[in-house]
Structures are given as C-alpha cells and as structure tokens.
Write a structure and sequence with these properties.
SQRD, 8 helices, alpha/beta, oxidoreductase activity, 27% strand, five-stranded parallel beta sheet, 22 strands, FAD-dependent pyridine nucleotide-disulfide oxidoreductase, FAD/NAD-bd_sf, 27% helix, FAD/NAD-binding_dom, FAD/NAD(P)-binding domain, 349 residues
C-alpha cells in the first residue's frame, strides 16, 4: 500500500461536519502483522499479469495468485480549475478542509457537484448536501445560505433505480437544496468563482465541494488489463480477469449489469468480492470448503443529518433492473451506521 494507515471512508462525511476527528477512524497498517500479513509500502510501478509478477518501486515480486485492489485514482485535474477552486469530499485532507471552511462560513452560496456521472459511493455527495444543510441549521446560518447540487448524472444513485433515486432527490429538495441533474461541469474559474457546464449554463459559488472524476491507475492501463472504459473487466461471480489466477476487486474492476450500466463502485461490494476471492483461492490450493460466487447483494447507509439515516439495500444482479428498497431515515439506521464503523475498525484492525 502507498499509505501507512487505513481510514474508514464513510466517516469522512462526519469529519466534514465536525462529528469525527481523523484519529477516530484511522488505524495503522502495522496492526495487520498480528494477522500474519506482511505489508510492503510503496507504489506499484509495473504489473505483468501473464507472469503474475509486480514491481513495487522497482522491486519485483512473483505470485501464485495476484489480487489487484488498487482502487480508483481521483483526477480533478481533468476539469480545468476544479482542484484550485473547490474541496474534494472524498479525501481525508479534503474533508478536513471542508470542516475548516464550514467553521469560517458566514453565509452565501454553497455548490456541491459531481464532476462525472459515475463515481464510487454513489450516496456520498447527497449525504454531504444533507449534512451541510444540518450543520448550517445548527449554527443559525441556513437562512443566510443557498445550497445547490449540480449532478452529472440524471438522478441520484442511478443504478439503484428510479424509486430510490426519487426518494433521495426528495430528501435533498425537502431541505431546500436546489437539485440540477445532467449538468456536466466543463471548467471552473477560481478567480471569478464561476462554474461553466457543457450545456452552456453557469453557476457562481462562495464554497465549492466536489466529487472528482475517477480513473484507474496508469499501471493497470499500461499492463493491458483495462477495457475501453478504462477499468478491469472481470468474471462477475469470481472476479478473475482474462488472466488465470489474476483477480481484480473493488473500485478498479468493471462488471456490466443487464440495465446497461456497471455495478456501482462501493465498499460493500469490494468487501464481498474480497471474501469470495480469498475463499476460492483457499479452496483451489487446499481443497477445503467449497467455491463461492459473488452475488452483488449490497446496502448503503444514507446520512440525512440530525442523527438520522436511511438505508438502501437489495440485489444489484437482479434483472432487468437491480431490486433495491429504501428504509428510513430514522435514528435506528443512524445508530446502525455508527455501530458498523466501530465493528469495521475493531474486526479488521
């Protein structure tokens, strides 16, 4: 891994509004040694999938099974001016900077935007809008603030279906957040604090929060592992790539659904895929247990502020459309998300 610590990504939203500090949800990777895992820090500089070899900062390693879990790289530089103008919701540094900016904020116009129609954790920017709204109400600033959400996608959480999308949109609009779907950002002028979209419209802001474009790391593209969309195609049940004994899990892979869109990039799916791959490697090598298939049963908490959350859960491999239902929002699901955070950090570190 490039980092020396793990952080629990869903907690970035709480950090953003001051409900967490970084140390509350970060853990050292050194703890993995207690589980018999040898950690190598550095950058993956080459992958040879045919030979199952990788290089980390130039040092070569050979494998009997290779599991690629490099995630998605953020590419705000793909949109001129975006990185200079706004704050990234999806990084530890960005979430901390958002908290600092909200603490200084005295009113004005806040814009939240998704810079591309497909990104990981599809609920997160909508949760961000709702949590910012709740933060401003708590501090007596909501009447002095306009919040606008510009989405590159046609509706919230598109792959989860129109019913869930309508429910999430309703949550946002009920709180007075203006929602503008199908607005693809073209460029941002940091000096003028102006956003220009490909449809010719513009928007001004005092504080800009964004989800950046995503792309696969260059090393997997250079290895010839990616498809025309730039991600690694895999068998939808085993996560194996076109190379025997080489697997790709999590945000870096691409699994097409019957509806014509890929399976969303989400931590719940990465976790499930990791379990399937690990089980099947053990079975292949030792004969213990039986093979498993990834079935894309998933769920996602949706924080709405004021100690309330909803949950969307269902079968994303269902045809012709994923079958996902929404429950809440209420206190129960908010507490469930808190407990899941605690469970994750305790169980794995």
């Amino acid at each position: 891994d490039r980092a020396d610590k793990h952080f629990f990504p869903p907690s970035l939203l709480w950090l953003m509004v001051g409900d967490r500090k970084p140390e509350d949800f970060t853990r050292s990777f050194e703890r993995l040694a207690n589980r018999g895992v040898e950690l190598r820090r550095g950058n993956v500089t080459r992958i040879d999938p045919a030979r199952k070899e990788v290089e980390i900062d130039g040092q070569s390693f050979a494998a009997d099974a290779l599991v690629i879990a490099l995630g998605a790289d953020y590419a705000p530089e793909a949109i001129p001016g975006l990185a200079e103008a706004g704050l990234n919701i999806y990084t530890l540094e960005g979430a901390g900077a958002i908290h600092d900016a909200l603490d200084r904020f005295e009113g004005g116009r806040i814009v939240i935007l998704t810079a591309a129609p497909m990104y990981k954790c599809p609920a997160a920017p909508y949760e961000a809008a709702l949590l910012v709204d709740a933060f401003l109400r708590k501090h007596g600033l909501r009447d002095k603030t306009n919040i606008e959400f510009f989405a590159a996608e046609p509706r919230p959480m598109f792959v989860a279906g129109p019913d869930l999308g309508a429910a999430v949109r309703g949550m946002v609009e009920t709180q007075g957040v203006a929602y503008h779907p199908e607005h693809q950002v073209k460029e941002v002028d940091p000096a003028a604090r102006r956003i220009t979209f490909t449809n010719g419209t513009t928007a001004e802001y005092d504080l800009l929060l964004y989800v950046p474009p995503h792309q696969a790391p260059a090393v997997v593209r250079d290895a010839g592992l990616t498809n025309e969309a730039g991600w690694i195609p895999v068998d939808r049940h085993t996560m194996q790539t076109k190379f025997e004994g080489v697997f790709a899990i999590g945000d870096i892979n691409s699994i097409p659904l019957k509806m014509g869109r890929p399976l969303p990039k989400a931590g719940i799916f990465a976790h499930g895929q990791a379990g399937v791959v690990a089980n099947n490697i053990v079975h292949s090598w030792s004969g213990r247990g039986s093979p498993r298939k990834f079935v894309a049963e998933g769920m996602c908490f949706i924080e709405t502020g004021n100690a309330r959350a909803g949950i969307g859960k269902g079968n994303f491999y269902a045809e012709p459309m994923p079958q996902v239902e929404m429950r809440g929002p209420n206190l129960f699901w908010h507490m469930a998300k808190i407990l899941y955070e605690k469970y994750w950090l305790y169980r794995h570190f």
